[in-house]
Amino acid sequence: MDSTWQQIEESLITLYDLDHNRAALAGNGTTPRDEAKRKLQEIRSGLSSASRESFVGPKLFLRVVGPGNRAYSGEWWFDAAVLDTLDAAHSRIFFSAADRKRALRDMLREALAVSSEWNPMTALWALELPPGQSLVGYSGPGTPQRLFANLPLTSEGNRMLAGRVRQIFFPVKNPLWVREYRDLSSPE
């Protein structure tokens, strides 16, 4: 196993071996090592390669969420510059408010390769790293994913989402640095 992946696994084992995490895992019949291996598989399926990075604030990261997704404890984030680039590229095109949100959701879904079954993407949340504070994460280009994760590619309407945008997996962060950033839901 590549040393970065091994480093991620070891840090996850250390994290899951903390008393409160070990107790929660034991309630599910899982060990810290088993949970670390499961989480490592998730990370490997989401990043084509990974490197450890230490980020120093001020820095802004974003996360797309839906009603069933975890905003505060979510681990997957991307640099706010991705949103700025998408906003700037389409700022001169007239969209109604609902169409603008739909277009932004579609562009983010494609760029981040977020399956529609995982996340309806109704909001953006921000992780604001304060000036001078640091945070360790593992980053790399996102891997392509199916639009509908549980359907074969041969099903009508299913296709691969491009991904490739740099994403960051933060195993631990301060939840006080997380806040709602932008509503992406379309009015009914």
Offer a concise description of the structure.
The protein is an alpha+beta fold and 188 residues long. The protein has helices at residues 3-16, 19-27, 32-46, 80-89, 97-112; strands at residues 51-56, 59-65, 76-79, 123-129, 134-141, 145-146, 160-161, 166-169, 178-183.
Question: Explain this structure to me?
Answer:
This protein is an alpha+beta fold and 188 residues long. The protein folds into two domains: 1-46, no CATH class; 54-183, no CATH class. 34% of the residues lie in helices and 24% in strands. It contains five helices and nine strands; from the N terminus they run αααβββααββββββ. The strands form two sheets. A seven-stranded antiparallel beta sheet has the order 1-5-8-3-2-4-9. Strands 6-7 form a two-stranded antiparallel sheet. α1 crosses α3. The N and C termini lie far apart (49 Å). The relative contact order is 0.20.
Helix content: 25-40%
**How does the helix and strand content classify structurally?**
alpha+beta
Sheet with the most strands: spatial strand order: 1-5-8-3-2-4-9
Which runs of at least 5 residues are low in confidence (pLDDT < 50)? Answer: none
Largest sheet: 7 strands, antiparallel
Order of helices and strands: HHHEEEHHEEEEEE
